[in-house]
Automatic annotation (TrEMBL):
It is found in: Cytoplasm. HAMAP family: LeuB_type1 (MF_01033). NAD(+) binds at residues 76-89, 280-292. Substrate binds at residues 96, 106, 134, 223. Catalyzes the oxidation of 3-carboxy-2-hydroxy-4-methylpentanoate (3-isopropylmalate) to 3-carboxy-4-methyl-2-oxopentanoate. The product decarboxylates to 4-methyl-2 oxopentanoate. This is 3-isopropylmalate dehydrogenase. Its cofactor is Mn(2+); Mg(2+). It catalyses: (2R,3S)-3-isopropylmalate + NAD(+) = 4-methyl-2-oxopentanoate + CO2 + NADH. GO terms for biological process: L-leucine biosynthetic process. The record marks 141, 191 as: Important for catalysis. It comes from Sulfoacidibacillus thermotolerans. One of its GO terms (molecular function) is 3-isopropylmalate dehydrogenase activity.
Length: 355
């Protein structure tokens, strides 16, 4: 069996962490009787530089026929000025939309050995085990938007947080089913005291909960949720929310585990899965070779699990990461004072040594 995996390294630290991910993927499938063909394409700022657009046609064609897609990250200060349609992030949003990956799964699990890197109290940090299900192809990032000038010549801008019933239902289904396979608790996060899109979201959660009587459902306003995540994150099992809230809450949750560099994600929907660490292109450390590759490597485990259905290989990758961390492997973002600091490549080698 041969699989085609499209690699989109992107910008900043993206190429470093995806190079690590590919090495781990190749090692993980050795002896499995399968072959993986990796095909690299342009997305984001590097694509703007080479082709004048953040999501070139060649990349669009390649991802639509792939078995899975691995992405690093896009963006950076180089492209922060200039016309809106040329932003690297627009390429990423278009990619997610094209693949129809409406459910972004972001597991947030503490590694016992990294508790010192977490800002939480020890007994709380070690109990963090959450899956965030973030709606990924709707909401304010995709709604009608405009910038203009009013009659007096003053500037205005707006973005619309639009959700259809179908968009809400399908991601909630993923969330309910995820909760069912875990501790059977679903926290739906919204801003239903203010936003109509949130009121509809909450109504649909309530309607759908009848089909999942084994799942305990609670509703939480997003501002309170942001606080609860740092005061008592151990109460959360599966957390489901719309795109913008999920983007923010997952970066916050990442820190609970020690570093944003630790968190993987799987974006699932209409077939082809997209796998990426949750962090961005980290321009402040780009080119230094010190990025934490573990979020990207753990995304490979999710690819093996969800797209290739190789659960044993997925577990091996997760265990290899856990073993490396247990043995004291630390990139700069994880290291406490006096700890030996590994480069991206050295950390990758440590993970590979356990595979
Ligand atoms: N999926 C994507 O492609 C994403 C792209 N971005 C883009 O990335 C650029 C930078 O955004 P920021 O707000 O700075 O967010 P960021 O996630 O790139 O970085 C935030 C902070 O975390 C650190 N960090 C991130 N990943 C790390 C890793 N693997 N190892 C060690 N440290 C790590 C960075 O050094 C920085 O201090 C922007 O252009 C933004 O739009 C941001 C988030 C996601
Ligand atoms: C372009 C942004 C929506 C990327 C991001 O921050 C994310 O998906 O987490
Ligand atoms: Mg984000």
């Amino acid at each position: 069996m041969t699989y085609r995996v499209v690699l989109l390294p992107g910008d900043g630290i993206g190429p470093d962490v995806t190079a690590a991910a590919v090495k781990v993927l190749e090692r993980a499938i050795t002896g499995q009787g399968i072959e993986i063909k990796i095909e690299s394409h342009l997305l984001g700022g590097c694509a703007i530089d080479e082709t004048g657009t953040p999501f070139p046609e060649k990349t669009q064609e390649a991802v639509q026929t792939a078995d899975a897609v691995i992405l690093g990250a896009v963006g950076g200060p180089k492209w922060d000025v200039g016309p809106g349609h040329l932003r690297p992030e627009a390429g990423l949003l278009a990619l997610r939309r094209l693949l129809g990956v409406y459910a972004n799964i972001r597991p947030v699990k503490a590694f016992p050995e990294l508790i010192d890197a977490s800002p939480l109290r020890k007994e709380i940090a070690q109990a963090v085990d959450i899956v965030i299900v973030r709606e990924l192809t709707g909401g304010a990032y995709f709604g009608k938007r405009e910038r203009g000038r009013d009659e007096a010549g003053a500037r205005f801008a707006y973005d619309t947080m639009y959700y259809s019933e179908e968009e809400i239902r399908r991601v909630l289904q993923t969330a309910f089913e995820t909760a069912r396979l875990r501790r059977k608790k679903l926290t739906s996060v919204d801003k239903a005291n203010v936003l109509d899109s949130s009121r509809l979201w909450r109504e649909i959660v309530q309607e759908m909960s009848a089909q999942y009587p084994d799942v305990t459902v609670e509703h939480l306003l997003v501002d309170a949720c942001a606080m609860h995540l740092v005061t008592h994150p151990q109460v959360f099992d599966v957390l489901v929310t719309e795109n913008l809230f999920g983007d923010i809450l997952s970066d916050e949750s990442a820190v609970l585990t020690g570093s944003i560099g630790m968190l993987p994600s799987a974006s699932l929907g209409q077939g082809i899965g997209l796998y990426e660490p949750i962090h961005g292109s980290a321009p402040d450390i780009a080119g230094l070779g010190i990025a934490n590759p573990l979020g990207a490597i753990l995304s490979v485990a999710l690819l093996l699990r969800y797209s290739l259905h190789l659960e044993a290989a997925a577990l091996r990758v997760e265990q290899a990461v856990a073993s490396a961390v247990r043995d004291g492997a630390r990139t700069k973002d994880l290291a406490r004072q006096g700890e030996n600091v590994l480069t991206t490549e050295q950390m990758t080698e440590r993970v590979l040594s356990y595979l």
